[in-house]
Amino acid sequence: MRRMADGVKRSSKHAGKQAAPAGDARRDRWRKHRIARRAEFVEAALTALDEHGPELGMDDVAAAAGVTKPVLYRHFDDKADLYLALGQRGTELLFERLLPAINAELAPIPRIRMALDAFFTVIEEHPNLYRLLARKSFADKPVDADVVAEDKEVIATALTALLGDYMRMFGMDSGAAEPWAFGIVGMVQNTGEWWLDKRTMSRDSVVEYLTQIIWAAIDGLCRQHGVTIDGNQPLDANKVVKLAPVTPAEPDRETS
């Protein structure tokens, strides 16, 4: 704080044009500091989730961060705000793995397998985060946001574009792409929740079973339209998609 006070004193010696840039610079420093601190607290919340499970409370998060609850509440409006920040981080973790897999320049079957493995790896590494977001409540406080459903829609929309591009490339009716995409994403999500709960098989096994099921559907539909694809050979064109979730705005507060 003393360094900041010195900066204010120095800026007061200059007239007019010097004042506005100094104020902008301070606001920019506060904004970067605020973002960094929030990120630290979100990582602390992930650590607390690993230890306490989805029943954790704000006390657990504060303890993991090494601060008091009042300090935590300087950076989050309420429990729902922290829940949304956790959801945003979970989305980042998922899409960091999923996007390269979906757009990999591989044959169809390895590409499907890689995308599924990305999803199951993330929920295996962060099972309590997924459970917390799926139940739409934090510290016994229900929240309006449904992060899991939002991610599902983003992924299904991207998959719709991908399937549609390939179907048109093979001269097929692309109208089925959207229900097909949402059906695949829903199946994978439901299977993921079942797998987290039961763990009756390894991640590799569930990924392989789902790969076979999804490819069987693709291969069967293509054959109905007179199209034969070797699932282990790269296609002539590698269609790509973008995943672009909407991120919440950062509150404009000066905190420490």
UniProtKB/TrEMBL annotation:
GO terms for molecular function: DNA-binding transcription factor activity; transcription cis-regulatory region binding. Keywords: DNA-binding. InterPro entries: Homeodomain-like_sf, HTH-type_TetR-like_transc_reg, HTH_TetR, Tet_transcr_reg_TetR-rel_C_sf, TetR_C_32. SUPFAM superfamilies: Homeodomain-like, Tetracyclin repressor-like, C-terminal domain. This is TetR family transcriptional regulator. PROSITE patterns: HTH_TETR_2 (PS50977).
